[in-house]
Amino acid sequence: MNNIVSACGAEQGLITVDQALDLIRDKIQVLETENLKLNQALNRYLAEDIYSSINLPLFSQSAVDGYALSAPSTIEPNRSFALVGEIQAGHASELQLTQGQAVRIFTGAKIPLGTTTVARQEIVKIIDSSRIEITESLKAHTDIRDVGEEIAVGDLLASSGQQLSVGAIASLSMAGIQTVNVFQYPKVAVVITGDEVAASVEDFAAGKIFDANAPLIQAWFQQQSQQVEIFHVADTEHAVTALIQTLSKAYDLILTTGGVSVGDYDFIRPVTLNLGFEQIFWKVKQKPGKPIFFATLQRADHSACYLLGLPGNPAAVYMGMQIYTSAVLNALQGQKQPPNWFSAVLTHDVKMDARERFLRMSASFDQSILKVKSLSKQQSHMLSNLMQANCLVRIPAGQTMLEGQIVQGLFIGS
Amino acid sequence: MNNIVSACGAEQGLITVDQALDLIRDKIQVLETENLKLNQALNRYLAEDIYSSINLPLFSQSAVDGYALSAPSTIEPNRSFALVGEIQAGHASELQLTQGQAVRIFTGAKIPLGTTTVARQEIVKIIDSSRIEITESLKAHTDIRDVGEEIAVGDLLASSGQQLSVGAIASLSMAGIQTVNVFQYPKVAVVITGDEVAASVEDFAAGKIFDANAPLIQAWFQQQSQQVEIFHVADTEHAVTALIQTLSKAYDLILTTGGVSVGDYDFIRPVTLNLGFEQIFWKVKQKPGKPIFFATLQRADHSACYLLGLPGNPAAVYMGMQIYTSAVLNALQGQKQPPNWFSAVLTHDVKMDARERFLRMSASFDQSILKVKSLSKQQSHMLSNLMQANCLVRIPAGQTMLEGQIVQGLFIGS
């Protein structure tokens, strides 16, 4: 871990991580909604409450493979019934049972009118093609799934704001939901700045470095089943201006990497402000990623373009995607809850730093307690510990944290 | 939660969940490997160890925006240097510093030969265009990132078997890795059986139900950025035979839903065995999903086709995807570790059942302790609690579990 207490952490007037996240949630204007087929809506946020228009089960049905019976009360062993037919799952039947009659039935098949109970096939002896016998005592209303016992017409199935997980898609499908009203997913452009970043092998020359940021951001969006367009731009005011101006007309969010500090070649912020963007925040008291920049441009049609400027070092980009880009994408889709931080026990001391830190750690469960352990190589130009890390842990500013203390964090996938 | 102790749980000779998972890992023949561009390899498993062919950093560089200096030892305040040029990040320089010289430099730029330390711009006073003064004491070798300090040529970057997460892709990109040798992702066909399942709105009629299984499986694969082909088949021996025979020639894995029990219309197992598949297991002592079926067909070219037959009820399909399909897909890609079970504390008693159960629960952290709480509507034909569930929890067979006891589970996404 990086034990250096950086002098620039002492800079006055920086906002905190939580203040930055609050600003994202407060200032962002939610996107329009759209109607999608349910099978196109994975991971989207609902823009409507959904009520059931059907009962689930749709009809009273057998819970087992066996026989639907008609009998006035509990059936004693050795009682026999007249077998009058068969009902396969998925096939409608006009049959109506009268007392003493039975019908062969299968799991999920609609029980005929007159059914009082169902005997699973394990307790049925077949006498001949027209007669069966029940071998055990059997109560009324056994192994019947009643119409509407899970969901009744008019029940709330899902609430506005809820994210459509795999399970939610399955559950709504079962209730016959075919389309959903959801918030639009933002159109995102990614701008990679920095002459030191090689865009391809051909670009690679002394003084340039391999680009981790474009692959990182592309993979991050791919992980959420989303595509992004990636643009590389040279470190000149003219090139940056032309690109941002063009993108600001067509995209809801422009993500940039690099060029947001105070170096002589850090054009993102001045260019953006010149183009009419309004700064929401610049610089957060955090490590990595202090010079993060967030701004908005109101367009003539009253829609907005947002620009999230991540610092160029890959550790800041990685943290920025997990913490800030997530928050921006969610807020644009009306989801303004804080991230789902876990709490965990530190397995070792962590030295104080003037800024809040996000450390890449390894988390594991020990008898229900989540324990986190820092990995080496935490500096902002280093990423190799992401091969082992499974979480980002927040270390509060200005505090020495001791082994056994509780910290917050986020899982970041395997 | 379902408190019914099912009679069929007492069935003799069923294997346990862990035995079934062991059989999957033992019996599966790993797929061939392929070379992919790194940016196409998200979530794949490496089939090679990867060693670095470069140093990281690639060259010694400045860690800050400031001035590279040449001085024999610690620099005292007010010492001045001759400014001889500027090096921007990404631009090579032939400059060589001699004692008493300085060069303007930016974060990530290659330090020139002769550099002994770097002064961040905050501690530098510009005297004129050719002279600067250091305002604070400055030690040798400050704010220099040394060549190879993170990774040296020949260091192991990633090991065979490791999954390529977003962080891994970023980290390998930074080390200049362009292509990777990974295990092929299995070609998967999904077969939805059951005349009771409506394939479309037009199919929907009395006695049919809305299909949760196809949307569930499609969304599950979409969540992992994978496509699958989905086929619906009628409940006839002829139709099932024709389809499975065709698919078994072209796919690595056939996933089926329904038709694996002992009902008169349960054709999957007999048809599969008739086609020459060898049964690996059938029936697991679990709830839901007892009649799960797993088989393999050796093809003439020595490759294999596997068939995983999930029971048709949606709760069994959901559990089957999370527990068994995951294990099969991983094993086909050479990943034979058990799932990454969490451990958590039960917040209430859970009644005994003869079979091991997978209950859909809600998990949350309380001061680093993960606590799980069961949701209502756990029966196998019910899915609506997936709107709230965020984990599947294993309840051991034949034990009453008490509040405060530790259980294992898996997170299942938001």
Automatic annotation (TrEMBL), chains A, B:
<keyword id="KW-0808">Transferase</keyword>
<comment type="similarity">
    <text>Belongs to the MoeA family.</text>
</comment>
<dbReference type="InterPro" id="IPR036425">
    <property type="entry name" value="MoaB/Mog-like_dom_sf"/>
</dbReference>
<dbReference type="GO" id="GO:0006777">
    <property type="term" value="P:Mo-molybdopterin cofactor biosynthetic process"/>
</dbReference>
<dbReference type="GO" id="GO:0046872">
    <property type="term" value="F:metal ion binding"/>
</dbReference>
<feature type="domain" description="MoaB/Mog">
    <location>
        <begin position="189"/>
        <end position="331"/>
    </location>
</feature>
<dbReference type="InterPro" id="IPR036688">
    <property type="entry name" value="MoeA_C_domain_IV_sf"/>
</dbReference>
<keyword id="KW-0479">Metal-binding</keyword>
<protein>
    <recommendedName>
        <fullName>Molybdopterin molybdenumtransferase</fullName>
        <ecNumber>2.10.1.1</ecNumber>
    </recommendedName>
</protein>
<dbReference type="InterPro" id="IPR001453">
    <property type="entry name" value="MoaB/Mog_dom"/>
</dbReference>
<dbReference type="Pfam" id="PF03453">
    <property type="entry name" value="MoeA_N"/>
</dbReference>
<dbReference type="InterPro" id="IPR036135">
    <property type="entry name" value="MoeA_linker/N_sf"/>
</dbReference>
<comment type="pathway">
    <text>Cofactor biosynthesis; molybdopterin biosynthesis.</text>
</comment>
<dbReference type="Pfam" id="PF03454">
    <property type="entry name" value="MoeA_C"/>
</dbReference>
<dbReference type="GO" id="GO:0061599">
    <property type="term" value="F:molybdopterin molybdotransferase activity"/>
</dbReference>
<dbReference type="Pfam" id="PF00994">
    <property type="entry name" value="MoCF_biosynth"/>
</dbReference>
<keyword id="KW-0460">Magnesium</keyword>
<keyword id="KW-0175">Coiled coil</keyword>
<dbReference type="InterPro" id="IPR005110">
    <property type="entry name" value="MoeA_linker/N"/>
</dbReference>
<comment type="function">
    <text>Catalyzes the insertion of molybdate into adenylated molybdopterin with the concomitant release of AMP.</text>
</comment>
<keyword id="KW-0500">Molybdenum</keyword>
<feature type="coiled-coil region">
    <location>
        <begin position="21"/>
        <end position="48"/>
    </location>
</feature>
<dbReference type="InterPro" id="IPR005111">
    <property type="entry name" value="MoeA_C_domain_IV"/>
</dbReference>
<dbReference type="GO" id="GO:0005829">
    <property type="term" value="C:cytosol"/>
</dbReference>
<dbReference type="InterPro" id="IPR038987">
    <property type="entry name" value="MoeA-like"/>
</dbReference>
<keyword id="KW-0501">Molybdenum cofactor biosynthesis</keyword>
